[in-house]
Structures are given as structure tokens and as C-alpha cells.
Amino acid sequence: MQDNIVRIEDLSHRYSKDWAVKDVSFEINKKGILGLLGSNGAGKSTTMNILCGVLSQTQGKVLIEGIDMRANPEEAKKRIGFLPQNAPLYLEQTVDEYLTFCAHLRLIDKRKVKEAVDTVKEKCGVAHFSNRLISNLSGGYRQRVGIAQALIHKPMLVVLDEPTNGLDPNQILEVRNLIKEIAADRAVIFSSHILSEIQATCQDIIMIEDGKIVFKDTMDAFNNYIEPDSLIATLGNPPAETELRAINGIKDVEFLTEKTIRVRFEPAADIAENIVELSVLRKWRLKEITLEKSSLDAIFAQLSNKKSKPAIQ
Ligand SMILES: Nc1ncnc2c1ncn2[C@@H]1O[C@H](COP(=O)(O)OP(=O)(O)OP(=O)(O)O)[C@@H](O)[C@H]1O
């Protein structure tokens, strides 16, 4: 039995003359959450739009349960629920009217429409807003309605393009939990340009930059792969900047306050250990030291200097 629901093979897409996506291949497992991480313009939306059959690729193949999206889009699309980057909501409709409309679009049997609408409202926590106009919902609840429309026909795969974008921290947590719940019995792929979003939610990660995959593996492998390249230390009796800069492997020193410094270093260097030892020897009175995870830019730089990792198996 196949354990993946999607196979994307050598996908490339060109808008006029520039390639937005180039030779992208990956699989999506039948269960769990796959995160698609990339900075703005990396090619996330293009990949998702092609995956969902709303954009036709220049080259390559998308197979949903073995069904070719280009050759048989109706069958392939039945298996997918999609929340595009801008949720396709009709603000002048109530939640009930909108979801009922979506259920009809998905050709759900007329006798089962109410049940389908009630189920997704319950699942997405919007049942108490059934008769409210979508225009009167907060951003977080609008996003929940957007996710509800993606679930209405019980798809095996749900594709969410930047679902937490523009939400406040509480709403982000709520939407994250909802995504985890809906992934309990189906596959979910969601995109974000925020690393912590993907780290908090996904088991697997694909990182895309300039239309190319620069990393794909499990989230654990990613976290192990990314080496910290800076630390913050608080010292009761900090040395002069020149003394710190003289330590082998340190690239840069920045005083954040009188007693707190950020030290940037070469990825392989054992700087934290050195600072702890030197602090004892030279009486710097180290109070706290924390390694910082690399920024997305630093990670892209690290990854582009290393070879692309093997595919998720
Ligand atoms: N309709 C279009 N016509 C021309 N170029 C486009 C079009 N849509 C996207 N692009 C370009 O293709 C590249 C990839 O864009 P895409 O929207 O897929 O990236 P993204 O990772 O989703 O970024 P964002 O998070 O900013 O939406 C970008 O350089 C973008 O400017």
C-alpha cells in the first residue's frame, strides 16, 4: 500500500520568462503535517496553486493518489481541500450561507449538505457564529471559516497557504491547534515564511528558496541540521569588546546593554564552552548564556552552502 497521497515530479513553472519554481519534486504522506517554508517570493503559492490544480504548470507532474492533476483534474481535485493565501470568502454572506454554497460547489448530495455544514462548523469552532455575516467576524474566525470550506467535502489532503498570516498571537495559536486537529485523520500541507510556525506544527519540512528545494526531511532532522551561529551572554563584569573579538571563531560582538552581549561566531566553533571557561579564568562573572537559533536568512545561507538533503521517505 502506498503511504503517500501526493507525488510531485520535476515541477517547474514560468511566469512569462522567469522561472518561479524549478525542478521541484516531493511526496506528501497520507497523515501528518508537512510545512512548506520559504521567504516571500520563494515559490510557495505557485507550488500550492499547481498542486491544487488552480494553476497549470509549465513542466512536471502532480499526482494525487496516482491521478494526474492535469489529465484528470475533476477526480484529483475531489481529494483536495484548499485555502489559498487570500481566503475565498463572500463577506456579505453568513457563515451558514457561505458553507452551504461551498457544499453545493463540491457537489455534496443535497440531503447531506446540512450535516456536512454542521460537522465542519463544529470542527472549526464557528458553530456559534452560524448566522453572523462573515464581514463581521475577526481575522481568526474568518480564517476558521476558510478552513471549514476546505474541509466540507472530507478531503484526504488539505492545502493551506499561509493560514496564520495577519493573525494576532492568540489567533495564531488557535489556528495552529485547529490544523493539528484536522491533521489527525488526513494529510495537511501548509506554507509559511515564519520558521517558528513550521517548527511548532509540522512533522516534516520542505524549505524552498528561489523556486528550488533547499531542504526536505523531518522537522527533527532540520532542527539538528541547523547550527546556531550566535549567543547572548550576560556577564557581571564583561571584558572589553577587543578581548572578546580576539577569541578564535568569534566573528562579531555587539553590546545589547552594558552587561549583555550578542556574539556571532563560525557555526562549527565551540564558543559557548570557551566563554564559560574564560569567564571563570578571567572573572567575567557569567550569569546567563543562551544559544540563538539562526535567522531564516542565515539558514538559507547555511543551506545554500551545503548539499540539498535527501527526500522524505
Ligand atoms: N502571476 C504572476 N505573474 C508573474 N510573476 C509572478 C506571478 N505570481 C508570482 N510571481 C512571481 O513568482 C515568484 C514566486 O511567487 P510565489 O507567490 O509563488 O512565492 P511565495 O513563496 O508564495 O511568496 P509570498 O509569500 O510573497 O506569496 C515571485 O518572484 C513572484 O514575483
TrEMBL record:
Q: Does the keyword Ribosomal protein apply?
A: no
| Residue intervals of the ABC transporter domain | 6-235
* Gene Ontology MF terms: ATP binding; ATP hydrolysis activity
- Tagged with keyword ATP-binding: yes
Matches recorded under SUPFAM superfamilies: P-loop containing nucleoside triphosphate hydrolases
Which SMART domains does the protein's record reference? AAA (SM00382)
Similarity comment: Belongs to the ABC transporter superfamily.
Give the protein's recorded name. ABC-2 type transport system ATP-binding protein
Species name: Chitinophaga niabensis
